[in-house]
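Lecture 7 notes: from sequence to structure.

We start with a single chain of 438 residues. Read the sequence below before looking at the structure.
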Amino acid sequence: MPKNENYSSNFQDKKNNHNPNIATILSLIFAGLGQLYNKRFLKGLILILLEVSFIITCADFINLGLWGIRTLGTMPGVDHSIFLLVYGLISLILIVFAIIFYVLNVKDARKQAKLIAQGWKAPSIRESIKIAYDKSFVYLLTIPGFVLLIFSVLLPLLFAVSLAFTNYDLYNSPPKNLLDWVGFENFGKLITAPLWKDTFVSVFAWTIMWTLVATTFQIVLGLFLALLANDSRIKFKKVIRTILILPWAVPGFVSILIFAAMFNNEFGTINRDIIIPLFGGEGIPWLSDPFYTRIVLILIQTWLGYPFVFALFSGVLQSVSKDWYEAAEVDGATRWQKFKNITLPHVLFATAPLLIIQYTTNFNNFNVIYLFNEGGPAVQGQNAGGTDILISWVYKLTFETNNYSMAAAISLIIGILISIFAILQFRRTSSFKQEGKI
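Now the structure, written as tokens:
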């Protein structure tokens, strides 16, 4: 239904007794009745047909879905709680669609009833179709994609969030067992239960440290190398840039597996060919001591991440006007002052959103953590490894111990943290502001 129509040429001089309240009540009783009262017969019949079709097609499914999401089943071995949960979520989405449809229907009927009461004359069917097509064409193109987005993105997200409030685990899996709603019990375990509390605090602290240190290192290294490669005194810039970008050309998982072999405690080349010949002993326990494993992981991520930042900064530095540096030299500015007041602000202004994405990506950087040492080594008194971050811990809870509800609860915490961080940083970043308002 078009929200706005061109009524200016359809008003009559005299008002009539057409009652908008009647149109509103009829539309509330059944979609389309208000339009029939307004003598918009084609629109009214279409709305009536849509509501009848919706009731016939979806009524039983919605009834089953609402019962399923409320109870999650009543007969073990017969009712499947997961299926019922999905049916319930789909039913809620359909109900939201129906409510939006009804609200638009009522608003349309009441608005046109008011216009008719003021003397407006409805256009002919041909004119109505033309107006509707002109006003609704853009919605006809976007609505299918929007609906697909809801069922492909929003529905899985709602399902994952819902699991966080159930008791779905290895020992309580449908269809043999029924799930139950447990409220915030899973989140309470992360705070009160000793095993979960100790693990969550340790993993969360390492995740924050990993994100900040590894990402900052790759950004600083990328910026440093970009400044060197962009220096006018450096020769063979193209060769240097090609060499520095090479780590980006190798698939990440290949590099990680190679590093895992190089740092192996027993046969790795780092211990066998470097550490032991130079310092003696049995080498450094790269994979069995969490401290050394974390250091190696940070170095590996710095190696893997700096080429992108280097390429990004190199492109931005090319756009910095040389006139600014010449003017700064005339004013007697030092190299540090030129970097601090010209180079760095320009680079950060142009790249801040992408740098924020680097932090949020590393917060959930599963590949490096899992491929290098599967989140190990094991830590006594915890159900996560010494280098597990939140996302790799979620993976283990899901696929190794089948503790789906706790994995969903931690995933919800991850999503909230990343969303808050991203929103706050994007709001503080100048890159999305108009230049004249900076």
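The first helix runs from residue 20 to 29. Keep this in mind for problem set 3.
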